[in-house]
Amino acid sequence: MIISDDNSQRENLAIMITCPRCQHKVDSQALQCPYCSNILKAYGHPGMTLHQAVTGEFLCETCLYHGDDSCNFPQRPYATSCTLYKNSQIIAEKIPPLPLPRVFKNWCLRNKGLLLLLTLILGSIALAFINSRR
């Protein structure tokens, strides 16, 4: 029977993040910084990243939800830590604009009722025009 040491392999593959307070490298799964005890994960859950602003700045200035006015966080616009933070500058860079045919197709799919109504009106006008010429 072969027993492998998976923990040592996992430690080598650990992703490191920078603590926003002391700037030390810390394991991305750490709940708090071992150097300054800054809380890195929200509610003690390793899957909930707690985004924190650099000293003297606010997260809301660059947040996507603040930009489109859909944020309901009570500390807005002066939040220095948030679990829902999305950097609007990074997201804008990642999303390429859709080509015009795709935009037109999406519009048609969203407005089927309007297109049906316009088709009926144009069809009625065409029939009325044809019958008036006879």
Short description:
By secondary structure, the chain is mostly helical. 38% of the residues lie in helices and 7% in strands.
Produce the secondary structure layout.
Blueprint: H1 6-13, E1 16-18, E2 25-27, E3 51-52, H2 64-67, E4 81-82, H3 88-94, H4 100-110, H5 112-132
Antiparallel strand pairs: 1-2, 3-4
Structure description:
The chain folds into two domains: 11-94, no CATH class; 100-132. The protein starts with 5 loop residues before the first helix and ends with a helix. Helix content is 38%, strand content 7%. The strands form two sheets. It has a two-stranded antiparallel sheet. The protein is mostly helical and 134 residues long. The longest helix has 21 residues, at 112-132. The protein has five helices and four strands. The chain has helices at 6-13, 64-67, 88-94, 100-110, 112-132, and strands at 16-18, 25-27, 51-52, 81-82. It is rod-shaped.
